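In this section we walk through a basic example: taking a raw amino acid sequence and producing a predicted 3D structure, encoded as discrete structure tokens. The instruction is simple. Fold the sequence below.
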Amino acid sequence: MLRVLNTDKVNRTSTLEVSGNDLRNLIESVDHMISRQRETLLENLPSEDQVRQKLDDFTALKEDLRKILELLAR
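The resulting token sequence is shown next.
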């Protein structure tokens, strides 16, 4: 279960509390989004910069979430 601990509207950030299980589910969901973006890129060659940027953003998000999960496992 995801819980908001703090929200800073000026900086547009939030501090969240999330269980390890939910974090794994988030990573899996982002992984599916990455797969769909890759398919979109391959189906629409030449690809648009916006689609490539979205794929890069999803990949970076997955990596960040994976690092957080590693910290939980320590």
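Looking at the output, two observations stand out. Helices lie at 20-43, 49-73. The beta strands are 3-8, 13-17. In the next section we compare this with other chains.
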